[in-house]
Amino acid sequence: MKPVLDVVAGIVWRDGEYLAVERPEGARMAGWWEFPGGKIEPGETREDALVREFREELGVTPTEFEHWQDLEHEYDEFVVRLNFFHIHSYSGELQPLEKQRMAWVDPSVPPALDFLPADIVIVEALHR
Fold first, then answer.
1. What is the pLDDT of residues 67-118, one digit of tens each?
2. Which positions fall inside the Nudix hydrolase domain (predicted)?
3. CATH code at position 43
């Protein structure tokens, strides 16, 4: 049986565009693009994990957000259970604290970044 990772991911909106981040060098699946977030720690709520991950990765605190949808994706070595949130506002200044590249994506044009396989269905939904 494959290990299951419970993960939160935030879709940050600014002026009609959403934020994508590239997985940093040294990380599993480095070089792929994703929505910022990370693993839910034992005893943590999804909301607490979202706030903690955004502080650790991007130096901001989500202040207005709502749960959108969940999905499960099976990779060769593990299964990831993703909890997606729309983030409408945050406090602080976005900074790539893990030296990751960041990009604002316009959902009215076809996606050009190589997103993780688990995120493809979400990207497609955002670009409809």
1. 999 999 999 999 999 999 999 999 999 999 999 999 999 999 999 999 999 9
2. 3-128
3. 3.90.79.10
